[in-house]
Automatic annotation (TrEMBL):
Keywords: Hydrolase, Metal-binding, Metalloprotease, Protease, Signal, Zinc. InterPro entries: MetalloPept_cat_dom_sf, Peptidase_M12A, Peptidase_Metallo. One of its GO terms (biological process) is proteolysis. It comes from Papilio machaon (Old World swallowtail butterfly). This is Metalloendopeptidase.
Length: 420
């Protein structure tokens, strides 16, 4: 009754604070928690996804969420031991959720997360009678042979109030043709230009460097080969820098070493990006195109299997995904879609076992909806060359910068010729 009263009271006075699309992007302050505690938090959030429709996407340091999304920041700045109830503030872009050290166990973490989700509901406009809504999603008592973190009433409450937001995660999108003359060549729309404007490398040149100790490793050769493959399929250029040659280090570049982030950020970013060379090159077993996927990501191209309309073509089995890797499957916004057909042969398409935590016996995290004789399952994610659509997309995104580079090079040649 208390929840019903609060929900009806808020209907006229409080603006919507539900997590958009039923997705909670979260980050953990590593200074406040040791590795074991971080793993316990991530494991609990991954398990909760099996009980409620809300998804929890771990946010690495180099991950940039959509500007409309909020971030749940798990920290303990006061070094508290216990976990007293707190008042959550959803007005800002960062929502703090402190977890005391004595509460680093799955039951207490689940309880704290439940309190946070309830707070998001109780600050939400509702035009539906709360009692009828929860009753609609009523489930039987939990099976004692399959212990869960949340009680049936808690699961009912969250699933009922988040069913619309969660529904948008799997809502199949209709990929309609852009307005205008369909005979026109492929071109970027205003929405595309807005999405990609900050993700394109100037002059279509990607500057990068490699730790000297890694230059003799096979991973370095794989990286170089993949870069050459993309250069042959597009006008993009990868320019290696050598810090020992006396040339000034560029301001914005990728740096490959033994540590750093698993993958590059999506598109151009100012400053130095430190990336782990091994995780950059090697992915799921058999994922031939893993290094190509990550290079395309560095160029600003989202994965084909993350397209906003991907649910028309593949199914994501969230239960199979390795804990803490769920954000790699988040759908890109519609503004990222350029009017090209869905391409299972794209080098950016995930393999069937992409980021799979339980696929030893043939399990799949990505499943094609239509797949005659497993042809797509066996081929997707195993391309060794960019497909035609990959090449067209790169040329479309970078043709202006490539043209500017060529003009600049020609002017430089003309200047040297004139001086001689």
């Amino acid at each position: 009754m208390r929840s019903l009263f609060v929900l009806l009271f808020c209907a006229g006075y409080v603006t919507c604070q539900l997590w958009r699309k039923g997705v909670v992007h979260y980050a953990i302050n590593k200074k406040d928690y040791d590795v074991h505690s971080q793993d316990e938090i991530i494991t609990t959030l991954s398990q909760l996804q099996n009980e409620i429709c809300v998804k929890f996407f771990y946010t690495p340091n180099n991950y940039t969420a959509d500007e409309k999304d909020k971030i749940l920041f798990i920290n303990n700045p006061d070094k508290r031991k216990n976990c007293p109830p707190i008042v959550y503030n959803f007005t800002g872009s960062v929502i703090d959720m402190p977890i005391g050290y004595k509460c680093i166990n799955r039951k207490d973490i689940a309880r704290i997360v439940m309190d946070m989700l309830r707070a998001s509901v109780e600050q939400t406009v509702s035009t539906i009678n709360s009692y009828d809504l929860v009753k609609k999603f009523q489930e039987r008592d939990a099976d004692s042979t399959h212990p869960t973190l949340l009680s049936p009433p808690d699961r009912n409450y969250i699933n009922a109030h988040y069913h619309v937001e969660c529904g948008s995660q799997a809502q199949r999108s209709v990929a309609s043709r852009r307005l205008g003359d369909t005979t026109d060549p492929l071109q970027l729309t205003p929405d595309n230009l807005e999405f990609y404007k900050d993700k394109i490398w100037p002059l279509a040149i990607v500057m990068y460097g490699v730790d000297e100790k890694l230059r003799t490793k096979p991973d370095y050769n794989l990286l170089k080969y993949a870069m050459t493959t993309i250069e042959l399929a597009s006008c993009v250029v990868f320019q290696e820098i050598v810090t020992s040659d006396g040339v000034l280090t560029p301001k914005n570049y990728l740096w490959f070493t033994n540590d750093g982030e698993e993958v590059p950020q999506l598109g151009f970013r100012e400053g130095k990006q430190t990336i782990n060379l091994e995780t950059m090159v090697h992915g799921a077993p058999g994922h031939t195109a893993h290094v190509l996927v990550n290079l395309m990501r560095a160029l600003g191209v989202p994965m084909m299997s993350n397209r906003f309309d991907r649910d028309n073509y593949v199914t994501i089995d969230w239960r199979k995904i390795q804990k803490g890797k769920e954000h790699h499957f988040e759908r890109a916004p519609a503004s990222a879609w350029v009017a090209t057909p869905y391409d299972f042969e794209s080098v950016t398409h995930a393999p069937a076992n992409y980021m799979c935590g339980d696929c030893d016996l043939g399990g799949q995290s990505v499943k094609p909806l239509q797949d005659h004789l497993w042809q797509r399952t066996l081929s997707m994610g195993h391309a060794t060359q960019p497909s035609d659509s990959d090449g067209k997309l790169l040329d479309l995104l970078y043709r202006d910068q490539c043209r500017e580079r060529i003009i600049s090079d020609n002017l430089e040649v003309m200047k040297k010729t004139a001086d001689n």
